Amino acid sequence: MEKKFRPVLTVRIFGEEKCFGPGVAELLRRVRSEKSLRAASASMQMAYSKAWTVIRNSEAALGFKLLVSTTGGKHGGGATLSPEAEKLLAAYEGYCSALRRFAEEEFSAAFSDIL
Amino acid sequence: MEKKFRPVLTVRIFGEEKCFGPGVAELLRRVRSEKSLRAASASMQMAYSKAWTVIRNSEAALGFKLLVSTTGGKHGGGATLSPEAEKLLAAYEGYCSALRRFAEEEFSAAFSDIL
DNA sequence: ATGTGTTATTCTGAGGGAAGAATAACGAAT
DNA sequence: ATTCGTTATTCTTCCCTCAGAATAACACAT
User: pLDDT digit of tens for each residue in chain A (115 aa)?
Assistant: First the structure.
């Protein structure tokens, strides 16, 4: 009836356990633009320690590194996305938007008689 | 490449705030078979108080009642699904499986080159 | 009246997760 | 050597959620 209700979906990828989801994805996006994990986590008010844990867990579950990071140097170092992370992120984003588009399309048909 | 990774998605319905998701759905399913909210919550080791809150919040957000419940009587009362809940649950289940089917199909295409 | 087993409702206590502190290591520049 | 700002890592503290307790109301049976 009214456009009052809408679907919201969260897409996660599991191997033996959880290995990728919206949190890591957002983190990667911000690392890409900030070129630093610290700056990335701060920009989304996430504690650095948690950001670091999240990344590490994801890397362990996936089996490859997401960040290439350098420490030290004049500006202290930084982090950028590994090529695999770049590809994974792109794939994930495409996948998510396809899913959301589909979810949007099917929604009204599925719930028109009740919502 | 290997079938090691798979998509997992959670589908929620939002109005102004969250109003329906997998938790409520599971609860409704169990109320349907147990004919009691207490039994339903116990069967999924959820505290009754929480089950009740979950249902109440969902009802408030949706704008209609999910349960028709009777109190008192020899066996203490019970609860069953309202007609609207019945329809909503059916619609939600169909919607979810369509989404999951689609997610499954698209998955390998989206991630074949990286996972 | 009393007993029974549920719904309805609020409150309290404990556990898990997250934020932030603390610390170490790093490497380029000065 | 010292400074600087990051990555890397662990630990403690706090908050929030959740489970379970407690209480009331209910209506049917006996």
Answer: 666 899 999 999 999 889 999 999 999 999 999 999 999 999 999 999 999 999 999 999 999 999 999 999 999 999 999 999 999 999 999 999 999 999 999 999 999 999 9
Which domain CATH number covers B58?
1.10.10.10
* Structural domain boundaries enclosing A43: 19-111
Asked whether residue B47 is assigned to any structural domain, the reply reads yes
Q: How far is A74 from chain B (nearest CA, A)?
A: 35
Work out the minimum CA distance from B32 to partner chain A, whole angstroms.
19
> Is any atom of strand D within 7 angstroms of residue A38's beta carbon?
yes
For the question of whether the overall pTM of this predicted structure is more than 0.85, the answer is yes
The DSSP code for B114 is T
Rounded to 10°, the helix B48-62/B22-34 angle is 110
- Cβ contacts (< 8 Å) between B96 and chain A: which residues? none
